[in-house]
Write a structure and sequence with these properties.
single chain, 23 strands, seven-stranded parallel β-sheet
Length: 202
Amino acid sequence: MDKVAILVGGFHEMLELCEDAGVKVLGIIDSKLTGEYYGVPVIGKDEDALSVKERFEDVPLVITPDSPLVRKKLWEHYRQFGFRFMTLVSPKANVSRYSSIGEGAVIQALVNVSAGTRVGAFVKLNTGSNIMHDNLVGDFATVAPGAVSLGRVCIGESAYLGANCTVLPDKKVGEGAVIGAGAVVTHDVLPGTVVKGIPAKQ
């Protein structure tokens, strides 16, 4: 392992992802943990950002929480201290060489990212999610396990696609919108709204 990182948020799935990706986790920042977590030292809380930066000056962070709003808040907090951020992609994911992945994104095992897709900064693609061709996934969006976004879908910043939902081709999911688990999106989703069901309704 020639890469190192610090996790913001203790979560065993993310530790395992780091191991698979050849990244050594030097420490965890978490407000609810102390001591060690799965053998990794807990080195502080969010309010300890400055002291962590002084101790681990050039070590990048991986921001792990599932919530788009929490990830964005943490990014805003840590960037003011000059931290760098790591993009973390599982070797068990299929990411097209004709796609692009933004800074700080986290892509878990069995994810598919097809050609022509742009994945924004600090996006989280959970296990088994499928982002098909020519998608645009906005910064901080979360795609839950098993969710499918078909061709030419535009997913707005900080949107959340629930587990096993399906977004049909050419649809737009607005900024901050939430798609319920198992929903089938057949129409554009307005920003900030919550839709669920088959077909998905507000």
